[in-house]
Protein backbone atom coordinates (compact mmCIF):
# COMPACT_ATOMS: atom_id res chain seq x y z
CA UNK A 1 0.00 0.00 0.00
CA UNK A 2 2.82 2.46 0.83
CA UNK A 3 4.45 1.76 -2.51
CA UNK A 4 1.24 2.72 -4.33
CA UNK A 5 0.95 6.01 -2.43
CA UNK A 6 4.61 6.80 -3.03
CA UNK A 7 4.21 6.09 -6.74
CA UNK A 8 1.03 8.17 -6.89
CA UNK A 9 2.74 11.06 -5.04
CA UNK A 10 5.75 10.88 -7.36
CA UNK A 11 3.45 10.76 -10.40
CA UNK A 12 1.44 13.80 -9.24
CA UNK A 13 4.62 15.80 -8.54
CA UNK A 14 6.08 14.88 -11.93
CA UNK A 15 2.90 15.85 -13.79
CA UNK A 16 2.75 19.12 -11.81
CA UNK A 17 6.39 19.89 -12.66
CA UNK A 18 5.83 19.16 -16.36
CA UNK A 19 2.71 21.37 -16.33
CA UNK A 20 4.58 24.33 -14.81
CA UNK A 21 7.49 23.84 -17.22
CA UNK A 22 5.14 23.90 -20.22
CA UNK A 23 3.39 27.03 -18.89
CA UNK A 24 6.67 28.90 -18.36
CA UNK A 25 7.91 27.73 -21.75
CA UNK A 26 4.76 29.12 -23.40
CA UNK A 27 5.14 32.44 -21.58
CA UNK A 28 8.82 32.70 -22.60
CA UNK A 29 7.97 31.82 -26.22
CA UNK A 30 5.25 34.50 -26.36
CA UNK A 31 7.57 37.08 -24.78
CA UNK A 32 10.37 36.42 -27.29
CA UNK A 33 8.00 36.12 -30.25
CA UNK A 34 5.80 39.17 -29.62
CA UNK A 35 7.66 41.51 -27.24
CA UNK A 36 11.38 41.27 -27.99
CA UNK A 37 14.59 39.30 -27.93
CA UNK A 38 18.28 39.62 -27.12
CA UNK A 39 20.54 39.46 -30.18
CA UNK A 40 24.30 39.02 -30.38
CA UNK A 41 25.56 40.88 -33.45
CA UNK A 42 28.53 39.78 -35.53
CA UNK A 43 30.42 41.33 -38.40
CA UNK A 44 31.57 44.84 -39.30
CA UNK A 45 28.59 46.05 -41.37
CA UNK A 46 27.07 48.28 -38.66
CA UNK A 47 30.30 49.78 -37.32
CA UNK A 48 30.73 52.13 -35.55
CA UNK A 49 27.14 52.03 -34.20
CA UNK A 50 27.16 48.29 -33.45
CA UNK A 51 30.43 46.37 -33.36
CA UNK A 52 31.27 42.67 -33.45
CA UNK A 53 29.91 40.75 -30.42
CA UNK A 54 27.69 43.60 -29.18
CA UNK A 55 24.45 42.40 -27.59
CA UNK A 56 21.32 44.42 -28.36
CA UNK A 57 17.64 44.22 -27.46
CA UNK A 58 15.30 44.02 -30.44
CA UNK A 59 11.68 44.90 -29.68
CA UNK A 60 8.95 43.43 -31.88
CA UNK A 61 6.01 45.67 -31.02
CA UNK A 62 6.97 48.33 -33.61
CA UNK A 63 7.13 45.71 -36.34
CA UNK A 64 3.66 44.39 -35.53
CA UNK A 65 2.22 47.93 -35.41
CA UNK A 66 3.93 48.94 -38.70
CA UNK A 67 5.94 51.64 -36.90
CA UNK A 68 9.33 51.00 -38.49
CA UNK A 69 10.78 54.34 -39.65
CA UNK A 70 13.70 55.56 -41.73
CA UNK A 71 16.84 55.55 -39.62
CA UNK A 72 15.73 52.65 -37.40
CA UNK A 73 18.11 49.72 -36.97
CA UNK A 74 16.31 46.42 -37.50
CA UNK A 75 16.95 42.71 -37.21
CA UNK A 76 15.67 40.87 -40.31
CA UNK A 77 15.90 37.46 -41.92
CA UNK A 78 18.58 37.46 -44.60
CA UNK A 79 17.14 37.44 -48.12
CA UNK A 80 20.11 35.21 -49.12
CA UNK A 81 19.89 32.73 -46.21
CA UNK A 82 16.63 32.52 -44.20
CA UNK A 83 18.45 30.71 -41.37
CA UNK A 84 20.58 33.81 -40.78
CA UNK A 85 19.56 37.17 -39.29
CA UNK A 86 20.97 40.50 -40.42
CA UNK A 87 21.25 43.78 -38.54
CA UNK A 88 20.87 46.85 -40.80
CA UNK A 89 19.54 50.41 -40.84
CA UNK A 90 16.31 51.28 -42.65
CA UNK A 91 17.24 53.74 -45.39
CA UNK A 92 13.97 53.77 -47.33
CA UNK A 93 10.35 52.74 -46.94
CA UNK A 94 7.88 51.79 -49.66
CA UNK A 95 7.60 54.52 -52.28
CA UNK A 96 10.88 56.21 -51.30
CA UNK A 97 13.64 57.02 -53.79
CA UNK A 98 17.00 55.73 -52.54
CA UNK A 99 20.58 56.00 -53.78
CA UNK A 100 21.75 52.50 -54.75
CA UNK A 101 25.37 53.41 -55.46
CA UNK A 102 28.32 52.59 -53.26
CA UNK A 103 30.28 55.31 -51.44
CA UNK A 104 33.03 55.43 -54.06
CA UNK A 105 30.87 55.08 -57.19
CA UNK A 106 31.31 57.96 -59.62
CA UNK A 107 27.87 57.64 -61.21
CA UNK A 108 25.03 57.68 -58.72
CA UNK A 109 22.00 55.48 -59.40
CA UNK A 110 18.61 55.56 -57.72
CA UNK A 111 15.67 53.23 -57.34
CA UNK A 112 12.21 53.31 -55.82
CA UNK A 113 11.34 50.98 -52.95
CA UNK A 114 8.30 48.88 -53.98
CA UNK A 115 5.18 48.45 -51.88
CA UNK A 116 5.61 46.12 -48.90
CA UNK A 117 9.41 46.47 -48.91
CA UNK A 118 12.16 48.44 -47.16
CA UNK A 119 15.69 49.39 -48.19
CA UNK A 120 18.32 48.24 -45.66
CA UNK A 121 21.99 49.24 -45.49
CA UNK A 122 24.79 48.86 -42.99
CA UNK A 123 26.39 51.97 -41.46
CA UNK A 124 29.79 50.72 -42.69
CA UNK A 125 29.02 51.03 -46.42
CA UNK A 126 32.42 49.78 -47.54
CA UNK A 127 32.00 46.50 -45.65
CA UNK A 128 28.30 45.65 -45.76
CA UNK A 129 26.22 43.22 -47.79
CA UNK A 130 22.82 44.87 -47.86
CA UNK A 131 20.04 46.07 -50.18
CA UNK A 132 22.66 47.32 -52.60
CA UNK A 133 23.43 43.60 -53.17
CA UNK A 134 20.05 41.92 -52.74
CA UNK A 135 17.62 44.74 -53.49
CA UNK A 136 14.57 45.82 -51.48
CA UNK A 137 13.74 43.56 -48.53
CA UNK A 138 10.14 42.41 -47.94
CA UNK A 139 8.69 43.99 -44.78
CA UNK A 140 7.68 40.49 -43.64
CA UNK A 141 11.37 39.58 -43.15
CA UNK A 142 11.81 42.21 -40.42
CA UNK A 143 11.90 40.55 -37.00
CA UNK A 144 12.24 43.62 -34.78
CA UNK A 145 13.63 47.11 -34.17
CA UNK A 146 16.85 47.45 -32.21
CA UNK A 147 16.27 49.92 -29.41
CA UNK A 148 18.98 49.28 -26.81
CA UNK A 149 22.62 48.21 -26.68
CA UNK A 150 23.23 45.97 -23.67
CA UNK A 151 26.80 44.74 -24.10
CA UNK A 152 29.54 45.76 -23.60
CA UNK A 153 28.51 47.53 -20.38
CA UNK A 154 30.44 50.74 -21.12
CA UNK A 155 28.30 51.19 -24.27
CA UNK A 156 24.97 50.41 -22.57
CA UNK A 157 22.14 52.66 -23.70
CA UNK A 158 19.91 53.85 -26.50
CA UNK A 159 21.50 53.68 -29.95
CA UNK A 160 22.84 56.77 -31.69
CA UNK A 161 20.85 58.63 -34.32
CA UNK A 162 21.15 57.71 -37.97
CA UNK A 163 24.11 59.19 -39.81
CA UNK A 164 22.73 61.57 -42.45
CA UNK A 165 25.08 60.98 -45.33
CA UNK A 166 22.77 61.51 -48.29
CA UNK A 167 21.50 57.94 -48.56
CA UNK A 168 18.01 58.98 -47.46
CA UNK A 169 16.50 61.09 -50.22
Automatic annotation (TrEMBL):
GO biological processes: protein processing involved in protein targeting to mitochondrion; signal peptide processing
Species annotation: Cyprinus carpio carpio
Name used for this protein in its record: Mitochondrial inner membrane protease subunit
Coiled-coil zones: none
Main EC class the enzyme belongs to: hydrolase
GO molecular function: serine-type endopeptidase activity
Family designation: Belongs to the peptidase S26 family. IMP1 subfamily.
Active-site residue list: 45, 88
Entry's localization field: Mitochondrion inner membrane
Any one Gene Ontology cellular component term annotated for this protein: mitochondrial inner membrane peptidase complex
Keywords in alphabetical order: Hydrolase, Membrane, Mitochondrion, Mitochondrion inner membrane, Protease
Protein EC: 3.4.21.-
Peptidase S26 domain boundaries: 19-101, 107-151
Pfam families the UniProt entry points to: Peptidase_S26
Subunit structure: Heterodimer of 2 subunits, IMMPL1 and IMMPL2.
Transmembrane segments: none
